[in-house]
Amino acid sequence: MKNNRDLLVKIKQALADVPALAECLSHISVSVNDGAVVLSGTIDSAALKTLATEIVSAIPGVDYLIEEFRVEKGDRHRVAVQIDWAKGKIALK
After folding, report:
1. Phi/psi at 15 (5° precision)
2. Which of 54, 70, 71, 86 stands the most exposed, by the fewest C-beta atoms within 10 Å?
């Protein structure tokens, strides 16, 4: 049996070492069970999805990888809008 905790730490560190993926880590879930890894959550682009999958699959000890990412833009891409119904105005912040 593989050490699940050690493998989990290696995976999270490998993802954190890539700045673009580090920004998404709070939205990524990693589950490990005896060499089988499940990546899930939201990620900002198909390119980052591919990159994360390639990085994790190359880590020694990862025998099987299931990728369940949803591609969505993160919170940092949202725009705040202020609506003043009384004046009939909409302003971007």
Report:
1. -70, -40
2. 86
Residues for the chain: how many in total? 93
Residue 88 gets the label, from left (phi > 0), alpha (psi -120 to 50) or beta, of: left
CA distance 21 to 93: 27
Closest CA to 7 of 64, 61, 51, 63: 61
pTM of the model: 0.75
For the record, the structure tokens of 4 come out as 């699940």
Tens-level pLDDT at each residue, the chain (93 residues): 469 999 999 999 999 999 988 888 889 999 999 999 999 999 988 999 999 999 999 999 999 999 999 998 755 544 455 666 676 665 555
